[in-house]
Design a protein that fits this description.
The structure is a homodimer of 440-residue chains. With 440 residues, chain A is an alpha/beta fold. Chain A is 45% helix and 17% strand.
């Protein structure tokens, strides 16, 4: 891994640029391809979806919908008990934390005006579960559990089938555990198009969630810009980790966290900021050693070529670079992490101390692992149950409330040149005054 | 206004389509124009912004930034006391309700794992205040107050200047009241481009808020799809109201609420659903009468041409049509509105009962008036303080917590084929076991 020295007075933005190249989500070729796929799916619906599945996944699905009356689902029940138990631990922790996050209604009642803001479930949501180099049943848990807690009426799950048309049994098991009884065998941009616009088989949803490759991300962006399409969770780029470490940190732990990130995707980024040049060198050595043991060594190696270790003069500088970078995952593997928590302004998820391996949070601590990447942690939240809901306000104004507010609103409406607004208040006020309406 | 009869058994979607034509946000001409403006502003920055302001607003701003050392701001202090008081009432109510909505941190601490999800302010936000047919100081209050409550460090406000380069004094007064000490004299797509990418004078922001015409909306969508751009509040189409009324409703009140909507914009929609054909006719008559008194009669008339009254067999049908339409504003002007509140699944803001004129909420009740339009109420929330913040999770796992979770996470990571994830946990577990690490 490349080691760079950052000196006091150097430009923070410059350092950030070393960590993350400025790239668009998609090239114009990807954009055009996705536009074509969306157009075709809107026109030819199921037929188009099946044909793209044949073309991209090497399997022609006679039936797109795959309900739990199919024997493959029962096979999932025969999964090894250890696996069932592990899924159960993850399920319970995710369920518990997301339940605690369920937003509560807020009500204010005074001067004859009763105001409430309340979250209600999005009725139909679409969950996209990738199945590329690995079957991501953890993504299913992270999406379906908050959707169930939010109270979504219909949860439509799509995932690309294997070449032989099967679906990974652990994914089926996890789906059943979440109460999902039907999956749809489709992936890629064609899945997003089907979810956004609906087909004969796949119901149109109102919001689409889940990670995917650049075609999936581009398709999500395109449908989210169309009022006839669907909203999306967040624009997702390649996964990232930024670790801040000092001389108290163990190089082997840090190397293992960097590699856990790097193995995701050749475009993933793993950044280390440290105040200790010896640690920087030790981590670089450890990475070489541990890399050899990885199943996905080739991917990790590619990803590490774009990753970097920065040696900075002090922790404050590390935090400032991190805030400017706004990492999806931030690991504070330093002797006194508590001291700098208040200064962290931009990060999706923060892992605190030497034992908080990011992998624990990826699977089983409880918080959601769908988090903002590519600097979006400056403005976007990771998922919570509220992502599967929308807030509505309720305003109930009594006759007394109207009389109290009328002079203010009549004047402000007049100042904005909106005489119709003013009139809607004046009419009511006059009626109350002329009829000597009995106020409660 | 056109009156349509909806019979039991008719198609709900058909009725919805009568209320809202399926339109995209922008034509391809608008898209291309906006692309050009964004490209030019990214290249030529201030110079481009000034030139576009000359071109579109008829004024060449020598200085884009307009700070409160300028005498015009002091003039704002001499505003009539009634106006100052009216702004104060609105300010206080908006402040109070949004303070009540400030999201609280949630913490869960058990089994050696301490989890927190906490909202922190977005550091730099951009507020776009239109100045077309009317100076919308109410939009400034609705955007700046929650931004201040959220704790945003920099609040950048842009608004198009008048032809003589001045800014409306009420807008300046409202800005000062919110603690804003500088405005930027720029509007349209060029303002959005400047906020998203920054210029020599206008700071780059991380999220852009505020209503605007189709060029502004298209520019917001385009910058939100670029990782180097900025996030946006929501895609905003023309404003809408849907009123549900029964035989107890007063036709004049309903007509006034429909007209208050219609006067906004020629593309605004005002829909009435009622169970009473006599009321439908009475409202149509009242609209003709009241229309004559409006300052913005021509705009309202155009808008009404696309608006519709639907006579439905029962309230349940009205609610089902409303839910499918998902109005920005829903007014329940019926004898027992409480009975159907739980059935309202999609609406931005609900106004309950005969005295709850939407105009009261537009200015002064307290809840935000920036709400989802064009059916986006199915998936988007209106603004709250959390819109100016983002959630971050904090995960602190102790050595004991790691030992508890390790078997689960090691197995799940292995099943997903991510040996690097597994290794980051195994290394720590082994270290703890081999060193007989003393657990707290």
């Amino acid at each position: 891994m490349k080691i760079i020295t950052f000196n006091a007075g150097d430009d923070i933005t410059q350092a950030t640029r070393c960590c993350r190249a400025e790239t668009a989500f998609a090239t114009s070729t990807v954009k055009e391809t996705v536009e074509g796929i969306i157009k075709t799916v809107r026109q030819n619906k199921d037929a188009a979806v099946k044909q793209y599945t044949q073309q991209f996944d090497g399997y022609y699905p006679e039936e797109l919908s795959f309900s739990d009356t199919n024997g493959q689902w029962q096979l999932a029940d025969t999964l090894n008990k250890d696996i069932q138990r592990a899924i159960e631990v993850a399920y319970e922790n995710i369920w518990q934390f997301h339940t605690a996050l369920l937003p509560q209604a807020v009500t204010l009642d005074q001067n004859g005006i009763r105001l409430t803001r309340e979250y209600r479930p999005i009725e139909r949501v679409g969950l996209y579960i990738p199945n590329g180099t690995a079957p991501l049943f953890s993504a299913l848990l992270m999406l379906a559990i908050p959707a169930v807690i939010a109270g979504c009426k219909e949860i439509i799950v799509t995932t690309p089938p294997n070449k032989d048309g099967t679906i990974n049994p652990v994914l089926l098991y996890a789906a059943r555990r979440c109460g999902i009884r039907t999956l749809y065998k489709v992936g890629g941009a064609q899945a997003i198009a089907a979810l956004a616009y609906g087909t004969e088989t796949i119901p149109k949803v109102q919001k689409i969630f889940g990670p995917g490759n650049q075609y999936v991300t581009e398709a999500k962006l395109q449908v989210s810009c169309d009022p006839q399409g669907a909203a999306i969770d967040l624009p997702a780029g390649p996964s990232e980790v930024l670790i801040i470490a000092d001389s108290d940190s163990r190089a082997s732990f840090i190397a293992s966290d960097l590699l856990a990130q790097a193995e995701h995707d050749a475009k993933s980024r793993a950044i280390l900021l440290t105040t200790d040049v010896n640690l920087a060198n030790a981590v670089a050595r450890e990475i070489k050693l541990q890399l050899e043991t990885l199943d996905r060594k080739a991917i990790a190696q590619q990803s590490l070529e774009n990753s970097v270790i920065i040696v900075a003069p002090d922790l404050d500088t590390c935090v400032r670079i991190s805030n400017d970078y706004a990492p999806e995952h931030l690991i504070l593997n330093i002797s006194n992490p508590q001291a700098c928590l208040k200064d962290i302004t931009n990060a999706g998820a923060v892992f605190i101390g030497p034992w908080s391996a990011e992998a624990l949070g990826d699977y089983a601590c409880g918080p959601n692992h769908v988090l903002p990447t590519q600097g979006y942690a400056k403005s976007y939240s990771g998922l919570g149950p509220e992502s599967f809901m929308k807030a509505m306000t309720f305003q109930e104004i009594t006759a007394q409330g109207l009389l109290t507010l009328a002079p203010c609103v009549e004047l402000l409406a007049e100042l904005e040149g909106l005489s119709g607004h003013k009139n809607s208040v004046t009419l009511r006020r006059t009626y109350l005054q002329e009829t000597s309406y009995e106020l409660a």
